[in-house]
Amino acid sequence: MQNKIDIVEHIADELEADFICDYSGRGMYGEKCVAISIDSDEIYEAVQLATLWGIKEIGKIDSMGRGVVIYWPDLEAEKMVALK
Questions:
Q1: 84 lies in a domain?
Q2: CA–CA gap between residue 80 and residue 64 (Å, rounded)
Q3: What Cα–Cα distance (Å) separates residue 48 from each residue in 56, 65, 77, 79?
Q4: What is the mean pLDDT of residues 50-79?
Q5: Phi/psi of residue 7, each to 5°?
Q6: How confident is the model at residue 79 (pLDDT cuts 50, 70, 90)?
Q7: How many CB atoms lie within 10 A of CB 6?
Q8: How many distinct structural domains can be found in the chain?
């Protein structure tokens, strides 16, 4: 079974999106987590894929103009090193 961070990276690959392993979103106070940068019209597909592949944590969304960043604060970048 893949770990959740690998799943987020796979979602980015499926959507031809950017995988970000050190994103710090609103209210994270410098803590880092994994994220994907996508077009705003791909939000639904990204959330569906995450749910389908077993990510139960709710992703948060930051608007970046025409695109968005979906990030998972519960999937901290520091944990990524331990999981690999």
A1: no
A2: 25
A3: 11, 22, 22, 24
A4: 83
A5: -65, -45
A6: low
A7: 15
A8: 1
Mean pLDDT rounded to a whole number for the chain: 85
Cβ distance 37 to 64 under 8 Å?
Answer: yes
Task: Give the pLDDT score at 20.
Answer: 93
Q: Is residue 11 part of a domain?
A: yes
Q: What is the pTM of this model?
A: 0.81
Q: Say how many residues make up the chain.
A: 84
pLDDT, position 1: 46
Report the alpha-carbon distance of residue 13 to residue 38 in Å, rounded: 11
Cα–Cα distance, 19 to 10 (Å, whole number): 9
Structure tokens at 5: 């961070």
Which domain range does residue 64 map to? 4-79
Helix (H) or strand (E) holding 18, with range, is strand 18-23
How do strand 60-64 and strand 33-39 relate by DSSP bridges?
unpaired
